[in-house]
Write a structure and sequence with these properties.
Blueprint: H1 2-20, H2 27-41, E1 63-67, E2 78-83, E3 89-93, E4 98-102, E5 113-118, E6 128-130, E7 133-137, E8 141-146, E9 156-162, E10 173-178, E11 184-188, E12 191-192, E13 200-201, E14 209-213, E15 219-224, E16 231-234, E17 240-244, E18 253-258, H3 294-300, E19 309-311, E20 320-325, E21 338-342, E22 347-356, E23 359-368, E24 375-380, E25 387-393, E26 405-412, E27 420-426, E28 429-434, H4 440-443, E29 449-456, E30 466-471, E31 474-479, E32 485-490, E33 498-503, E34 518-522, E35 538-539, H5 544-547, E36 595-599, E37 601-602, E38 606-607, E39 611-615, E40 619-625, E41 635-637, H6 642-650, E42 668-671, E43 680-686, E44 692-697, E45 708-714
The chain binds copper (II) ion.
């Protein structure tokens, strides 16, 4: 356990260091300070983001994140990642190279060794190894590479299959992933066009398609409707899945089970549905911009395949990427589950799926936060166990995290976190399986299970707001004899809808709090079968079932004065202002402002100022100009509370949007609303009387880790 204590200490000191040396001129000093810390703790960990939950358990109690160092001249923008039979790791890069990495586990603290296996290719976004050869997708072809003389450098590049491209920058090609019969699955991104820059268009055959390619170079178009199909996975049943990214006709990211002839949502690829090789029987004229949910269109079009698991946008990530099934139980408590990388949020989620009425559906849960950059590819180390490698890149795509590429390792410590292990559908509600037995007394309270359902529009416009949000009142529950399962009996179960399951302070039998308290279940089918009879479950106390769920009302827009019961000690002295978002200059100021502050953004999720100095008690006019292409706010918080407030913002779930992602906490002093790209907002506030190092932070989900600075209040 000492290691973890050190890690936690490391995090705390990194944070201190961030506060002490935040101006850019002092970067040099900061670097040496960090180096010193690393020597003091003499630990192979080079970067470890804090993900403390603030209530007793945190990510680092269960998972250790280590950055694999690389030589300066290796620009490891990972597009493909695979483990080799000899224990080495191989990465294909967006720069067109393949690197073989020896000693990725960094035995005895020794650095990994990088050998360039291949170069001169173009935007490789997938990598597999089979029978002594690598297989990788370049933008325009699937390539096989072989080292024929055993010097760890390829000397044979063979084209397996080439597909046409128009030359548009967005025509990324992904894969391959092998099927059990030795054929390969590849996917082809659409181009963009007019009148909107983001409008998906298929300028060449099979853009927007999934293709099956045999090792002999025969290609079979398999399915279309794909927009930005960054992840491909074949599970232990031999079934094919792909991950999708939000855009036109795609309300949010998702994971879809793909079968031959499927149409998965985006109509661009339908341009080739009449082609003699096409197995897809859908006509573009059948796609109508109706503002209805996707499932309404699927009722009309038999070939339309609904997502097995929606990955709710901003709540669980922004760009669904690589996926891998943990068939060997590398992360043992989650054997058989699916890990799903998110590029935009630099995180990894965990999905579980089941088949109901012959179709896949399931849940997605948070797993790992705080990676260095956009998480694109995952590889599980099945031979050594307990390790997942994550390949990172964000060039042109932006993500949270402080770097633009790299390779990190997630090591499971062996301690099993208290989590919702699975959510499964039952005829009258959901069954939640936990990783440890629950504290029965606490878990018996139905008000601790908050369920809300919602979906997205199927529309031409980019993305979608959350629509048709409704409460799902919990009528009662039944705890299994072993305490591992809680079966919820609910009202208002809706087929096709995403059901948010958010838990209150449930603890395990041994008093451990949940590491993550939320999951999102996509209910494509409600199982048939007997419901629990009323004698089998404990009813909710009257009145508690209706108001336990999240309100959809905009009344929660201004979370101003209500106190928060979790409070950081050093902040207790600072009183909470009555109005936290003052848009007009207060009359009592008589038109006099002591200081005007302008704050902007810079690419890479940062403000354009690391620190601002203000005088205690002074009157400030504060303007936030969002010059970035993403949504941001500015939340001024009490000293040392940016992490806590940032995490609370991230955990608001469905309430977040209406609350401008500003948690209802007395650590929040002042804030702007969420400011749209290219817009600005001005607020007025009086600086606290207590001098100190306050913080400001963006609480839009996932941004708080890098988007922050210090507000130095002087006497
Ligand atoms: Cu932000």
């Amino acid at each position: 356990m000492n290691t973890f204590k050190n890690l936690r200490m490391y995090n705390r000191i990194t944070e201190m260091n961030r506060m002490l040396f935040s101006s850019s001129e002092q970067l040099f000093t900061r670097f040496f300070f960090l180096l010193l810390l690393l020597l003091i703790y003499s630990n192979p960990v080079i970067a470890q983001q804090s993900a403390s939950e603030g209530d007793g358990v945190s990510q680092i109690d269960y998972y250790q994140i280590t950055t694999l160092p690389a030589p300066d001249d290796v620009v490891l923008e990972v597009g493909g990642l695979t483990l080799l039979p000899n224990g080495k790791l191989a990465a294909a890069t967006r720069r067109g190279e393949i690197w073989v990495i020896s000693n990725p586990e960094m035995k005895n603290g020794r650095a990994p060794v990088y050998t360039k296996f291949a170069e001169g290719m173009y935007e490789n976004l997938g990598l597999e190894y089979k029978n002594g050869s690598f297989y990788t997708s370049q933008r325009g072809e699937l390539t096989k590479l072989t080292d024929t003389n055993g010097d760890d450098v390829t000397d044979l590049y063979e084209r397996v299959y080439a597909w046409p491209i128009s030359g548009h920058y967005h025509e990324y090609s992904y894969g391959p992933v092998f099927l059990p019969n030795g054929d390969m699955v590849v996917t082809a991104n659409v181009a963009f066009g007019n009148p909107k820059w983001w409008e998906a268009q298929s300028h060449a055959p099979w853009r927007g398609w999934m293709m099956i390619v045999t090792p002999e170079g025969e290609m079979r178009p398999f399915a279309t409707g794909l927009r930005s199909p960054n992840g491909i996975m074949v599970n232990d049943q031999g079934d094919i899945f792909y991950s999708e990214n939000q855009g036109d006709w795609i309300g949010s990211g998702f994971i879809t089970h793909v079968e031959e002839g499927d149409f998965t949502g985006n109509p661009a690829g339908l341009k080739w549905a009449d082609h003699p090789l096409s197995p897809v029987d859908v006509d573009t004229s059948e796609i109508i911009d109706s503002e209805l949910p996707m499932f309404e269109t699927a009722k009309r079009i038999p070939a339309m395949k609904l997502p097995a698991v929606w990955v709710p946008h901003t709540l669980m990530g922004t760009s669904t990427a690589g996926m891998v099934q943990d068939t060997a139980g590398v992360i043992a408590p989650f054997k058989g589950h699916y890990f799903v990388a998110d590029q935009g949020h630099a995180r990894v989620n965990r999905a579980t799926m089941e088949k109901v009425s012959g179709e896949y559906q399931g849940a997605i849960f948070p797993f790992i936060y705080g990676l260095d950059s956009g998480a694109l590819r995952l590889a599980l180390d099945e031979s050594r166990g307990q390790t997942m490698y994550v390949g990172l890149t964000d060039r042109g795509w932006s993500s949270t995290g402080e770097k633009s590429y790299g390779l990190q390792r997630v090591d499971w410590t062996g301690a099993i976190p208290f989590e919702m292990k699975t959510i499964t559908a039952v005829p009258d509600g959901f069954n939640i399986e936990f990783t440890h037995p629950v504290d029965r007394e606490i878990a018996a309270d139905p008000s601790l299970y908050n369920l809300t359902s919602f979906t997205y529009r199927y529309q031409y416009e980019y993305g979608s707001p959350i629509i048709n949000q409704e409460n799902v009142p919990v009528k009662g529950l039944q705890i299994s004899d072993d305490g591992m399962n809680v079966r919820l009996v609910v009202d208002n179960l809706r087929q096709y809808y995403i059901h948010e399951v958010k838990l209150g302070d449930i603890e395990s039998e041994s008093g451990t709090p949940l590491l993550h308290d939320v999951g999102y279940y996509t209910l494509n089918n409600i199982p048939s079968g007997p419901a629990l009879s009323e004698s089998e479950w404990t009813a909710a106390a009257s009145g508690s079932s209706d108001d336990s769920s999240v309100s959809n009302s905009l009344e929660t827009m201004e979370p101003s004065v209500s106190p928060d019961n979790v409070d950081a000690d050093p902040a207790d002295e600072i009183s909470e202002p009555a109005v936290k978002r003052q848009l007009e200059m207060p009359d009592s100021w008589n038109g006099r402002v002591d200081q005007t502050i302008e704050m902007g953004t810079v690419p890479g999720l940062e403000y354009d100022k690391d620190a601002i100095e203000v005088k205690a008690g002074s009157r400030v006019r504060f303007t936030f100009n969002n010059t970035d292409d993403m949504l941001h706010n500015v939340v001024i918080v009490k000293p040392e509370t940016a992490d806590q407030v940032g995490e609370q913002g991230m955990n608001l779930g469905l309430q977040g949007e209406a609350m401008q992602y500003v948690p209802d906490s007395d650590n929040v002093l002042y804030h702007t609303s969420i400011v749209q790209p290219g817009s600005s907002e001005t607020i007025y506030f009086t600086v606290p009387e207590e001098p100190g190092t306050y913080q400001y932070v963006c609480t839009f989900p996932g941004h708080y880790i890098t988007m922050r600075g210090t507000l130095v209040v002087t006497e």
